[in-house]
Amino acid sequence: MFQKITRSAFAFVIALLLSSISAYAAPDGKAIFQSNCASCHNPLKDATGPHLQGVDGRVPSKDWIYNWVHNSSAVIASGDKYANELYNKWGKTNMTPFPGLSKEEIDAVVTYVNSVKAPTPGGETPGATGEAPAENNGWLYTIITLALVVLMIILWRANAGLRRVASEKEGLPVEKEIPVYRNKVFIAVAAIVVFIAAGYWIVNGAINMGRQQNYQPQQPIFYSHKVHAGINQINCLYCHAGAEKSRQAMIPSPNICMNCHKQINEYTGEKEYPLYTAEGKKVDGTAEIHKLYEYAGWDPVKKEYKRKANGDIDAKPISWVKIHNLPDHVYFNHSQHVKVGQVQCQRCHGPIQDMDEVYQFAPLSMGWCINCHRQTQVQFANNNYYSIFEKYHQELQAGKRTGVTVEDIGGLECQRCHY
Questions:
Q1: Residue 410, Ramachandran bin (φ over 0: left; ψ between -120 and 50: alpha; else beta)
Q2: Which domain holds residue 188?
Q3: 43 domain-assigned
Q4: Does residue 314 form part of some domain?
């Protein structure tokens, strides 16, 4: 009788453990959104693509969302009226397909974007990022899991003790109990678990060696991309002019900054958009502008450049700290992606227009680049660079193909990116 009760208790414990594991395994809508959608979409306002809050109420059906996310080109090619209206409204640019996202993951993203709250009148948003505060119940599941494990051990020991007492009462031989730490099965299982954990830790550490995702160094001048690219809507190419013309994006010289800051000598957005470092320290925007003047050699009082004895401007270069670094054996061309591929800046750099201090958004790993090449469709329309691919153009016109990915034009060939 007791054994039946014990087995039922064990079954109950296992069921609770599985339920806690499934809670951990539930898709994280916020993480999926930031990894796949944030480069082009904002929950609350239009960006490169339309805002996503309330998208489940705007589209024809939930299945339509799944089909659109998995392959928007196929939906457009099917003649779907809403899809074609959306395609024409947003500059006839196909959305990047995400065939690997499950329906549950897409539902999690929709739930997340619908939970994001609008900014308060003071200009601040929940969490100071424009996103709803995430509910993190991980600690609760951890406590429940540990409690269940302890309960399972207690029941196991109680069952063994009662079995021994019952055997002694019935006069049956009682086997001498071997301590757990001397049990061969336990030692073997523990050794295997330790070996697997150590192997995973070593391999994962080696794979991530040299990668700098979320790297956010302190810069000599606090430059807010949110203020410049976000609030004031300054185009990325105004400062990074080389991004569409050369391999390097180019860090702007102080002269480009001075085109505006000869007239703008103070930060007037302290009330609406106060500046803070990543550590939460308040930043004096006007003082940062005057740091620029020191580097540029500008006298804000006389409104002229300071001169050395030989007549040269008394300026010095700004020692910006490079954030995005690739290995020396990797070739990356900005113009190839920005001009030819028409890839938006946010695709690699994340929601740059919402960042005060810039950090490395993407892992910039080989796998990350390859997945992008497999999924990203090349902009063939009105792009003379791809005129030599006559076969693909003919197949597109004949309706045999809905799009051409970077992989189709050799984007996975080793020598494309490696010397």
A1: left
A2: 180-209
A3: yes
A4: yes
